[in-house]
Write the structure tokens for this entry.
Amino acid sequence: MKQQIPHPLISIIPLLVLIVMIVTVMKMLPNDALSGASQISMLIATTICVALSMSIYRIKWQVFEDSIKATIGDTSVSILILLLIGVMSSTWMISGVVPTLIYYGVQIITPSFFLPCACIISSLVSVMTGTSWTTIATIGIALLGIGNALGIPEPFTAGAIISGAYFGDKVSPMSDTTVLASSVSGADLFKHIRCMMHTTVPSITISLLLYLVMGFWFSGERVEPSIYLEGLEHSFNISAWTLLVPVFSGILIWKKVPSFITLILSALAAIVCAIVLQPDALLEIAGTQTATVSNIFTGLLKVCYTSTQIDTGFAEVNNLVATRGMGGMLDTVWLILCAMCFGSCMVASNMLKSLTHILLKTIHNTFSLVTSTVVSGVVLNLIMGDQFLSIIMNASIYKEEYANRGYQRELLSRSTEDSATVTSVLVPWTACGMTQSTVLGVPTLVYLPFCFFNIISPIMSIIFALLGKIPKGDDNTAE
């Protein structure tokens, strides 16, 4: 028996409930939003979705259970990677990698040009690594520390880092989202990247100009970095040798070693560096001054799995070098699981299909087609809570429509990336939004206004469609 498609007015109820609850949580419980309030909001919205489907459309619970199992199973590797990012970011801090980068960075970069520099550096690293997550968890943390030392507000720095990281992620042939968007759309990978350059280059150029203008606000507000330099020197062995760790990680990525293995090996390299260069820091974390193998081992374990704090003599620097370890990612994992439950139930109930049918009815020309694709990419992030699922669903929904109208596949893959990929980090309950807010320590809705590239990209995609700037080719038909 074919499952009935719910009415759009019914389908939108769970989504509206979720949005209202999340906004309420962010306003009333900003400090506990990630610690449980948002998770409960997701589960309540999921419950409403299931209750409406079972009571009105007689959908059996087994349908939802199977969908949840499949969806969470597909995201299990991402969850493990998230936990490993917690380990790697902590080991990179305690090993002296991040403190060394901060130490030299505050002496080289001026406040006026810091934001565009942070965006460019993040872009370059992300292009080479092919992943925004790893970029933000490594060089992003160092840049955030440098920004703090220069007196740049954290939301500004976080926005510049995320903008650069997602630009690099989009145009890198090693990016999993780039490969996914092109493959699901049936587009050639490098044609897809060339096509994206038409919208991404103007978007990142405008973003850099905005960061440059913002930087002049801080031209006369350079913070005296002496406390940071003194604090870091007091607690860490600042050495260029620590930079061998990111170099090693870069080689692994260049060799296209799987992300899971790369993160493990990078963390192990940082652990070796910590043992050799930062034994005093490990002993302080272990709560002793006696240098024994047992105490060093205790310190290393604590770095990997729990929060740590080192007394540098300055409160600002203490907060800068504090780590969260794998345990610091557990709230995010919990929220991801709840988000996956909501998304999978919206799919299983056909409520998602009901909402997308509305968008398909609005298509009349190139402009409306691209606009519909971009809008649904954003909406799917709100519903699915995962950029990979959003990319797959978005491309699948419009693939036949683009083919029937004779458009190149690269137009679909570009429109999907310009929306589903870049806006995922702007939604508090997506895996990207939760991860980056946890890693950087800045709430999603706080850094959102400063992620210029992520905001401009979907708008730029629509503007290009309005101007008729679409991929040209033998299989492209003009309107």
